[in-house]
Specification:
This protein is an alpha/beta fold. It contains 12 helices and 8 strands. The chain is 35% helix and 8% strand. The strands form 3 sheets. A 4-stranded mixed sheet has the order 4-3-7-8, with helices on both faces. Strands 1-2 form a two-stranded parallel ribbon. A two-stranded antiparallel sheet has the order 5-6. The radius of gyration is 20 Å and the shape is globular. The C terminus is likely disordered.
C-alpha cells in the first residue's frame, strides 16, 4: 500500500533537514522519475486534457519554474494544479490548507507527498521532492525533474491552446538560441540556482567560501551580459526564454531569503546589480500579454517563500526575518511608456526609493 511505510521516530524528526554530507558540502539528489509527456498519441504518456496533475510548493524555486510556464502557456484548464503546504515537515511536504494551499490531496486524499511517491513506487527511499507531474490515468509519477517538465509544457500540449500561446509564437526555447541557452543554463544552475543552496547548506567554512564567491562572480557575469547588444529587455532579446524563467525563480528569492537566511550576503540584487534588478522587476510587474496577464507575479508568494526558507535549515527556528521591506521594489513607470503592469507596480513605499 502507498501509505504503509514506517513512520519516523522523534529522533528522526530533524533528519529530513540534514542537507550537507560529512565534508560540509551539499550535493543535490538527481531526479529519479524521468519519463516524458508527448504530443504523440501513441507515446507512453500522451498529452491529454485533464489527465495530468502538477504538484508544487509555492516556496520552492524548482516547482515555481513549472508554475510560471503553466501560467505563461495558459495551461491551468488543461493540467490540474495541486499546492502543498509551504513548510517542510519531519515527514516531508504535506497538505494543510494553510494560506490557500490544498487541505488534502484532491486525487487520493493523501496527507503527505511521500504517499504519492510510494503509490508510484512502494520501494522508493529517496527524498520526496517537488515538482511532481502525475498521470491520473496510469496512476503513476511521470517526472519530478523541473527542467524537463517545463520543456514538456512548452510544446506538448499546444494542440489544446490558441495559436498565440503556442511555442511557435512564444519562442521560450527557440532553435536558433539553443546552444547559447544550454551554455547559460549550465553555469547559472551550478553557481546560482544550485549555488545558493550549496552556500546556504554548507556546514564548514571551506564549503561555504567555495560556493559563496563563485555565486557572486556569476551574478556579476549576468549583470555584464544584460549590458551587451541583443540582451535586452530579456536575457536573449525580445522574447522571454527559458533562462529568464530559470533565473527569475532564484533572483526573486534572493534578497528576501538567500541573502538573509542562506548567508548569501556579500551583496543584494536591489542595491548592487542595477541591470539584474531592473530585469527582475520588469518580469515581476508585467501584466501584459507577454506574461499572459502576470504569470510571474501571480505565481510568486513572498509570505510562503520567507516562511518556508526560515524553517528549512537543520538549525531552523520559527522566527521569520522581517525584511527586506518591501519584498520587491516598484518599477519607475516613466521608463516604460505603454508598458502594461500590475496596478500596484508604481506604488510608493515610505522611506524607500526606486534604484
Amino acid at each position: 500500500m502507498a501509505d504503509k511505510q514506517p513512520e519516523p521516530t522523534k529522533a528522526d524528526d530533524r533528519k529530513i533537514f540534514k542537507q550537507a554530507d560529512s565534508d560540509g558540502e551539499f550535493r543535490r539528489q538527481n531526479a529519479q522519475f524521468r519519463s516524458y509527456v508527448s504530443a504523440d498519441p501513441d507515446s507512453e504518456f500522451p498529452a491529454e486534457k485533464d489527465r495530468y496533475v502538477l504538484y508544487i510548493v509555492y516556496g520552492c524555486p524548482w516547482a515555481h519554474r513549472t508554475n510560471i510556464v503553466l501560467h505563461l502557456k495558459g495551461l491551468e484548464s488543461i493540467i490540474q494544479l495541486v499546492v502543498l503546504d509551504w513548510e517542510l515537515g519531519p515527514q516531508g511536504w504535506f497538505f494543510s490548507g494553510r494560506l490557500g494551499t490544498d487541505k488534502v490531496d484532491p486525487i487520493y486524499g493523501f496527507t503527505h507527498l511521500r504517499q504519492l511517491y510510494w503509490k508510484a513506487d512502494p520501494s522508493y527511499d529517496k527524498r520526496f521532492t517537488v515538482p511532481v507531474l502525475w498521470d491520473k490515468k496510469r496512476e503513476t509519477l511521470v517526472s519530478n525533474e523541473s527542467s524537463e517538465i517545463i520543456r514538456m509544457l512548452y510544446t506538448e500540449f499546444d494542440e489544446f491552446l490558441p495559436e498565440e500561446r503556442r511555442e511557435a509564437v512564444l519562442k521560450m526555447y527557440p532553435e536558433n538560441l539553443r546552444n547559447e541557452i544550454e551554455d547559460m543554463n549550465g553555469w547559472v544552475y551550478e553557481t546560482i540556482n544550485n549555488g545558493v543552496y550549496k552556500t546556504g547548506f554548507a556546514t564548514t567554512q571551506e564549503a561555504y567560501d567555495s560556493h559563496l564567491y563563485p555565486l557572486f562572480e556569476s551574478l556579476a557575469r549576468l549583470e555584464k551580459h544584460l549590458s551587451e547588444p541583443g540582451h535586452t529587455p530579456y536575457l536573449f532579446g525580445a522574447h522571454i526564454t527559458e533562462p529568464d524563467i530559470r533565473l527569475f525563480t532564484t533572483l526573486v528569492r534572493f534578497d528576501v531569503a538567500y541573502h538573509t537566511i542562506y548567508r548569501c550576503n556579500l551583496k543584494m540584487i536591489r542595491h548592487d546589480f542595477p541591470r539584474l534588478h531592473e530585469w527582475l522587476r520588469r518580469l515581476y510587474w508585467d501584466s501584459s500579454d507577454r506574461t499572459n496577464g502576470g504569470a510571474f507575479k501571480k505565481t510568486t508568494k513572498f509570505d510562503q517563500i520567507k516562511m518556508g526558507y526560515a524553517t528549512a535549515l537543520e538549525a531552523a527556528t520559527t522566527v521569520v526575518p522581517g525584511g527586506p521591506d518591501p519584498d520587491i521594489l516598484p518599477l519607475e513607470l516613466d521608463k516604460y511608456p505603454g508598458f502594461s503592469v500590475s496596478p500596484d507596480a508604481g506604488k510608493h513605499y515610505p522611506g524607500f526609493s526606486v534604484l
